[in-house]
Amino acid sequence: MDVFGSFALLLAFVCAAYAIVGGIAAIRTRHPLLIKSARQAGIATCVLIFVATFSLVYLFFSDSYWVAYVVSHGNHSLSTFYKIAALWSGQEGSLLFWSFLLSIYVFSVLIAYRNKNGELMPYVGVVMAGVQIFFLTLNNFVASPFKVLASAGANGALDIFTRADGNGLNPLLQYPEMVIHPPNLYSGYTGFTIPFAFALGALLARYPGEKWIHLTRKWTMIAWCFQTVGILLGAHWAYAVLGWGGYWGWDPVENASLLPWLTGTAFLHSVMMQEKRGMMKVWNVWLVFVTFMLCILGTMLTRSGVVSSVHAFAQSSIGNWFLGFLILILVVCLAAYVKNRDYLKSENQLDSMISRESSFLFNNLILLVSCVAVLSGTLFPVFSEWLSGSRISVGKPFFDKVNIPLGLILLFLTGVGPLLAWRKTSVDSLKRNFGWPLVVGLTAGAVLFALGLREFYSLVCLILCVFVTSTIGMEFFRGARVLKARSGSSLMTSAVDLTMRNTRRYGGYIVHMGMVLIFVGLSGAAFNKDAQKEMQPGSTMTIGRYTLLLQSMDTKPEPNYTSERLIVEVMKDSKPLMMLYPERRYFPANQESGTMVAIYSTLREDLYVVYAGRSPDNEVPVIHTYLNPLVKWIWLGGVVVVLGTFVTLLPNRRAVLALSAVQQPASAPSLSPSLQPQVTLREGHD
Amino acid sequence: MINRRFIAIFNLTCLTGMLALPVAAQIDRAKQIGGKFMCMCNCNQVLTQCNHVGCTVSTAMLKELDQRLARGESETAITQGFVQEFGTQVYAEPPKSGISLVAWSLPSIYLAVGTALVVMVIWRWRARPHLRPAAANMPAGMSADRLEDVRQRVARETED
């Protein structure tokens, strides 16, 4: 099967090469057969990558311990769940997994648009195949996952040998979220290839107007949603597994995932200006380019060892390949832009400073400033070493200080932006839309202050959360009230109906609501408490309203590890509440240990109990306990963001009156053809 | 008798309080100062937050921090001592001096330059005259003002 997989990858490389060469020839000649063959080569590339990926998974399941990658990351006792996760747990496998996910997107695009957009698709196919061939080069010639264990035999031939068992999966990765976090994050990274391919393809093809944006909106939303979920799952994994009581440490790998998310979010907002007003064409194209380049840059940073990270892969020369690819993308994008920039000329015009357009500009500014600040902070240790000879670390305190104010400005814009009118917002409209939310927000702030909340950023954050919630709530309420008056149905039914009539707008509000919940959760971090104590069975420790009684401890052998478990009774306000079982696990296959944190989670706070190990002095168990307020809101917010994204992807439920450009008889028009309102019923977004 | 017992309990409480207060204060200071250093076990975490199983580095560093605090060393002296021992990588946040000032000033520069650019762009775009449609697209018998009115109506009616 290793030979089979290896051969499939090689063949995929050849097919991708043909998809590029044939695609370029098809663009030049416009020959239908060439166009078709290039597309089919693209589809074949994807199928072959699927085959190679399934071959590697099969090698894990068949315990093929003559394949180096299987030996390094698998073993007999791994459960089915983790044998699948082993696929992306190392450098070689994760690169193949990257190719696999990219192929799913490419395959879907090639099939979905096989008979559409004939002008554009050959260009898009070439760009997608170009990205694929880079990863296939790595899969085939730089980091092949199908290398076998072999030594030179006496006769000069290679003797393949088989190990009895593998080293097993890294203990930190043996956690359910690790099975779903990387696929989500990688789906986000790879997903941004599609808008990139359409943007570059449209620029190269001088494809008319906003077509590429309409074509890629759903793909961008899907990639963005995966990226969001991936980031949040990663945060939850860090919270539940690493045992340091936090969920976001501004580690370079975490930062690398945040960078394209920030620019991708900026794009999703600024793209509306192009759709509605034909503005920002150059900006949008470059936002897509930059988002894709940041995906590659992040991968380069974490795989090259340029920056140190607890998550990073071992230092290797593979970073140079990514650097080369990054330079190539930049050169191609610059060349395409310089050559065809006239095509991107747009009617940039603003009527007022207080308008939806201005709010989008400021939204983009804050997202971009945050992105550049995170990037420069992440790279500062490298720069400081180059410039001064000493590496200066930039850790969590720095990133918190820089990004918290930016996040709060963004939160404010989240409430303000959607309620400003396009072109110009009148003073009356401002009063109508923001009067009550402002009053409610400030009242909430006064109440919180009176209750003793003095942490400045948390107070501001919560005031803004209430303000944004009020603005969103009022939007739903006003719309639903109108529908209720017409239909007579309940307010809730009307609100659902309203949402389904304009999924994009109200789905967007739901996404914003999810972000508000996330911010509520983040605001709790200022009030975290922790305590650590050496505890003999029978002893207690107190944190906040909780008292922990260590009842006993036991040892439990499992197929893949041995667990040492503490049995802790939790009492709240002196009344028994529940049992918690923090664990330390020892994995004999790779001689490593890991923690399993025990968490009692409520909307108010998380009681987070870590078995930190035994005291070196007296072998007594040490328990580290954290009381983290509001953390659950972050995960709830993530769920709401996903829900909102799904809603935005749905078609509008009812037919809407739409304006479309159609040819009119010469005698008829009294308006410009482009403005002539035609009552055409269509399903679609506004 | 009651008075004596009360005085004894009171004295004991005061004594305990007097002893406990500096200890509590020292723990708080250790947390505050420890939050400014990185753990040097390569985990990329702040010293007081490093909780890796078997991390002997953070334990030793925290112990050293406690010892220095117990000796009454100032925060500056402790920082200098840690930097001498571990190098500049021990900073959790760059110091606000020398080359590290660049790290602190960059985000403000980005924000200031970006804001200036956005304001300038808005200013320029507002100053632009409304573009008139090309003559070829002008419907017969329709004035430019009427067309602009219709254009605005279309924009209004299609706003989301």
Task: List the topology elements.
The complex is a heterodimer of chains A (686) and B (160).
Chain A: H1 2-29, H2 32-61, H3 68-73, H4 80-85, H5 91-112, H6 121-142, E1 150-152, E2 158-160, H7 176-191, H8 193-205, H9 211-242, H10 252-277, H11 281-304, H12 318-340, H13 356-388, H14 396-416, H15 427-450, H16 456-487, H17 491-501, H18 503-523, E3 529-534, E4 540-543, E5 546-557, E6 562-572, E7 575-580, E8 583-587, E9 592-596, E10 598-601, E11 605-614, E12 621-629, H19 631-649, E13 656-658, E14 680-682
Antiparallel strand pairs in A: 1-2, 3-12, 4-5, 5-6, 6-7, 6-8, 8-9, 10-11, 11-12, 13-14
Helix pairs in contact in A: 1-2, 1-6, 2-5, 2-6, 5-6, 5-7, 6-8, 7-9, 8-9, 8-11, 9-10, 9-19, 10-11, 10-13, 11-12, 13-14, 14-16, 15-16, 16-17, 16-18, 17-18, 18-19
Chain B: H1 2-34, H2 56-70, H3 75-86, H4 100-127, H5 144-157
Characterization of this structure:
The complex is a heterodimer of chains A (686) and B (160). With 686 residues, chain A is α+β, with helices and mostly antiparallel strands. Chain A is built from 19 helices and 14 strands. Chain A folds into 4 domains: 1-174, no CATH class; 189-425, no CATH class; 431-524 and 643-682; 527-632, no CATH class. In chain A, strands 4, 5, 6, 7, 8 and 9 form a 6-stranded antiparallel β-sheet that branches. In chain A, strands 3-12-11-10 form a 4-stranded antiparallel β-sheet, with no helix packed on it. In chain A, strands 1-2 form a two-stranded antiparallel sheet. Chain B folds into 2 domains: 2-90, Helicase, Ruva Protein, domain 3 (Orthogonal Bundle); 100-157, no CATH class. Chain B is built from 5 helices and no strands. Chain B has helices at residues 2-34, 56-70, 75-86, 100-127, 144-157. Helix content of chain B is 64%, strand content 0%. Chain B is an all-alpha fold and 160 residues long. Chains A and B meet through helix 13, helix 14, strand 9 and strand 11 of A and helix 4 and helix 5 of B.
